[in-house]
């Protein structure tokens, strides 16, 4: 092995000074230069330039074109102007506040110095400021603005939330629940039935940052997360005048600094009995604090949750001990009554998934122009560009999917949606949530690799993108839960599949004159045909007990998501606003990556025993049963 003493080498007599002076450098001078270079800081004279956040609207490669296609010209210009201004505010103010909220997580002070129970929640000042900004910018009110055609206002709202989310310090979470509460109040006409709900609705959709309210939704209890019907152990006692007292234990309650809340409970009848299961649940509205005393309304904050991510967000275990509430659903109709809330919050969840994808890609793209490795900037290495382009393709698919959900939600709220469109919205919502949530995590993880070791360093702010995004496949139903919901959609209405097929076919009508897009269209149509035939075979096998459809529910859900996303990419690429890259993205998504993702054999019920043996091999507690 060759070794050399750099300081004793004769060639140092001709090496230029590290300070750039001309002439030769002696060994004595070289030693001095090295000491000067590393004296004090010991870090040398190189510092890596960090990635920069630029206006997330003007630098987004797709959003502006998509909006110009989806919105009427006059409304598009107003929306574009608003989003550009908001993008500047994100860079100049909001992102710093979001980072501050991350670094100043909430704390709970349960008692004062004299032993009095106070349950004082301490959150970052940035958290409150971000909530004010969210109201001022209309992040909820835009979706309910009666001066705007309801067919388009959701697209505007979701676009703004998409820009806001990664910089929001997780204020995006209470916004999701606030939107869900406002939607529930409107759809059930609760603002027309109860003065309290009318007042609450006006506050929930207010643009006044000092007066606007946020809402919680307390559904999760110790026994169950998604199993709300089997897990709810909260009880309601009728005390007259439409008022109830609630007692129970809410295990996972987010954004507990909210002003109001919607929750589920079982009503105790006059004989002291309750109805178990989902049919025993009713929906209740409650203020978090007593309007006069400002003290908590029979609520005790027992502990804050120590979470993997979303640490900015105050999440707690709550004891409900005589909480005053109003029943706002028919008795036993709690689950159907929260359907509107769940649809909206699931769309918000999908926005978060795609927004986190976009943020990591945007930062990695910028970093690729600044980081030099092996003599070249990262963007000069084809492999690095190939990696980023794969992430970009997936992110664009997700964005178009979210915007399509906004379009359908707007149609439903305008009253102009056809029965077919209503069916597609019902199918689309769980598909959108499960698909984007499942795609986000590996994509963001890959994006973090693009920063090398710096992507693993907490004070860069980069790891929090992955930690916070990890909640999106979990909150509002895990991938398996939502996949089973998709099966329920098909089972509940025999016309759902034909409605989906019709919608896909209608979006693929303008590709005949483009060879690239024709190939994409054929792939999607083949996948759609495969899906129909497979579902038919699985259904027949299910009836004969040879197949079990829920075994492959996840594969069905993911494949529908891929068909939907691919179709939306094709539709956009065939429009007048499309660029060459839009066509390339559609081709890569639909042709280069297979849409068909399963074989019907995975549904064979004979695999159940093999699955259990594989999972529980040498697991003593259960191996005797397999």
UniProtKB/TrEMBL annotation:
Residues 54-187 form the Adaptive response protein AidB N-terminal domain. Its cofactor is FAD. Keywords: FAD, Flavoprotein, Oxidoreductase. Residues 332-488 form the Acyl-CoA dehydrogenase/oxidase C-terminal domain. Residues 495-616 form the Acyl-CoA dehydrogenase 11-like C-terminal domain. It comes from the Eukaryota. The keyword Transport does not apply. It holds the Pfam family AidB_N. GO terms for molecular function: acyl-CoA dehydrogenase activity. Residues 217-323 form the Acyl-CoA oxidase/dehydrogenase middle domain. Belongs to the acyl-CoA dehydrogenase family. This is Acyl-CoA dehydrogenase. It comes from Strongyloides venezuelensis (Threadworm). The lineage of its organism: Eukaryota, Metazoa, Ecdysozoa, Nematoda, Chromadorea.
């Amino acid at each position: 092995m060759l070794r050399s003493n750099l300081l004793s080498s004769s060639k140092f007599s001709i090496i230029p000074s590290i300070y750039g002076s001309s002439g030769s450098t002696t060994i004595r001078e070289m030693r001095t230069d090295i000491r000067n270079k590393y004296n004090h800081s010991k870090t040398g004279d190189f510092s890596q330039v960090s990635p920069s956040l630029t206006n997330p609207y003007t630098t987004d490669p797709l959003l502006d074109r998509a909006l110009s296609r989806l919105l009427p010209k006059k409304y598009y210009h107003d929306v574009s102007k608003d989003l550009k201004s908001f993008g500047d505010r994100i860079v100049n103010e909001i992102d710093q506040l979001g980072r501050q909220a991350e670094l100043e997580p909430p704390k709970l002070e349960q008692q004062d110095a004299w032993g009095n129970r106070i349950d004082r929640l301490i959150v970052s000042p940035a958290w409150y400021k971000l909530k004010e900004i969210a109201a001022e910018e209309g992040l909820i009110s835009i979706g309910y603005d009666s001066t705007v055609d309801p067919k388009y206002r959701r697209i505007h709202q979701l676009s703004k939330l998409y820009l806001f989310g990664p910089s929001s310090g997780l204020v995006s979470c209470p916004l999701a629940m606030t939107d869900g509460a406002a939607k529930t109040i409107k759809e059930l006409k609760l603002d027309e039935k109860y003065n309290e709900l009318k007042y609450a609705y006006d506050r929930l959709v207010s643009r006044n940052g000092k007066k606007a309210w946020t809402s919680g939704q307390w559904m999760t209890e110790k026994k169950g997360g998604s199993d709300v019907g089997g897990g709810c152990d909260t009880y309601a006692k009728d005390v007259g005048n439409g008022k109830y007292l609630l007692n129970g234990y809410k295990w996972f309650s987010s954004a507990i600094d909210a002003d109001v809340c919607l929750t589920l409970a079982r009503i105790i009848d006059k004989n002291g009995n309750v109805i178990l299961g989902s049919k025993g649940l009713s929906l209740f509205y409650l203020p978090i604090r007593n309007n006069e005393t400002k003290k908590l309304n029979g609520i005790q904050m027992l502990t804050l949750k120590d979470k993997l991510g979303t640490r900015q967000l105050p999440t707690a275990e709550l004891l409900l001990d005589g909480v005053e509430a109003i029943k706002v659903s028919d008795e036993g109709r709690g689950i159907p009554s929260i359907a509107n809330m769940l649809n909206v919050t699931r769309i918000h969840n999908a926005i978060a998934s795609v927004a986190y994808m976009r943020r990591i890609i945007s930062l990695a793209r910028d970093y690729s122009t600044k980081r030099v490795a092996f003599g070249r900037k990262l963007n000069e290495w084809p492999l690095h560009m190939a990696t980023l382009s794969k992430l970009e393709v997936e992110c664009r698919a997700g964005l178009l999917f979210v915007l399509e959900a906004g379009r359908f939600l707007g149609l439903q709220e305008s009253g102009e949606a056809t029965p077919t469109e209503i069916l597609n919205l019902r199918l689309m919502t769980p598909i959108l949530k499960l698909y984007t949530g499942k795609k986000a995590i590996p994509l963001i993880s890959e994006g973090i690799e693009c920063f090398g070791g710096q992507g693993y360093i907490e004070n860069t702010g980069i790891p929090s993108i992955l930690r916070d995004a990890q909640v999106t496949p979990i909150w509002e139903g895990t991938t398996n839960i939502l996949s089973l919901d998709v099966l329920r959609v098909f089972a509940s209405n025999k016309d759902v599949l034909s409605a989906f097929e019709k919608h896909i076919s209608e979006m693929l009508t303008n590709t005949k004159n483009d060879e690239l897009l024709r190939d994409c269209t054929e792939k999607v149509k083949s996948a759609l045909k495969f899906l129909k035939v497979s579902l038919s075979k699985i259904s027949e096998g299910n009836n004969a007990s040879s197949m079990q459809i829920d075994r492959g529910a996840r594969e069905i859900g993911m494949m529908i998501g891929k068909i939907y996303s691919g179709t939306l990419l094709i539709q956009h690429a065939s429009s007048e606003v499309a660029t060459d890259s839009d066509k390339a993205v559609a081709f890569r998504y639909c042709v280069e990556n297979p849409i068909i993702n399963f074989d019907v054999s995975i549904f064979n019920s004979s695999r159940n025993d093999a699955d259990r043996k594989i999972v529980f091999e040498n697991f003593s507690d259960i191996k005797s049963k397999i």
